[in-house]
């Protein structure tokens, strides 16, 4: 290589390529290599713990971004309703600690929050409404 030449990174290290032989495709032993494509499509099965904001977001994104029939999502929720933290915490004065308009999903805005730092009840209502607008119940 001359003084002004750059090494060819596409041809190995510092311009020196190496040829490697592939291992034999059928060998004797306890393991079996299946005759199938490397990236053969299979159904993606996802389990999500909790149906609060993150669980609802996951369900929505999977529904919108993945091929229908190529996935299966199970949301495991200990409570009888969506909402997570906002369903569980009902103590007096519970409210969001950031401005409410930053707490909703960008694809489902809520421009009419009743106050800058919404109450827990109002946030819970937003998530229940979101599930009604965008979700599917277990039987559908």
Task: Record the SSE blueprint.
Layout (H helix, E strand, L loop, with lengths): L43 E6 L3 H13 L5 E6 L8 H4 L31 H15 L6
Parallel strand pairs: 1-2
Describe this structure in words.
- This protein has 140 residues and is α+β, with helices and mostly antiparallel strands.
- The protein has a domain at 41-134.
- It is 23% helix and 9% strand.
- The chain has three helices and two strands; from the N terminus they run E-H-E-H-H.
- It has helices at residues 53-65, 85-88, 120-134, and strands spanning 44-49, 71-76.
- It has a two-stranded parallel sheet.
- Strand 1 (44-49), helix 1 and strand 2 (71-76) form a beta-alpha-beta unit.
- The protein is elongated.
- The model has no long low-confidence stretch (mean pLDDT 82).
Summarize this entry quickly.
With 140 residues, the protein is α+β, with helices and mostly antiparallel strands. It is built from three helices and two strands, in the order βαβαα.
């Amino acid at each position: 290589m001359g003084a002004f030449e750059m090494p060819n990174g596409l041809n190995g290290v510092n311009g020196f390529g190496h040829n490697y032989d592939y291992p034999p495709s059928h060998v004797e032993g306890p393991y079996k290599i299946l005759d199938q494509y490397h990236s053969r499509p299979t159904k993606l099965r996802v389990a999500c713990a909790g149906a609060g904001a993150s669980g609802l977001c996951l369900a929505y994104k999977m529904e919108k971004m993945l091929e229908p029939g190529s996935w299966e999502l199970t949301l495991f929720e200990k409570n009888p309703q969506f909402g997570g933290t906002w369903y569980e915490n009902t103590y007096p004065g519970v409210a969001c600690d950031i401005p409410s308009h930053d707490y909703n999903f960008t694809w489902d805005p809520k421009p009419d929050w009743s106050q800058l730092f919404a109450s827990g009840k109002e946030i819970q209502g937003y998530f229940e409404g979101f599930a009604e607008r965008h979700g599917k119940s277990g039987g559908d």
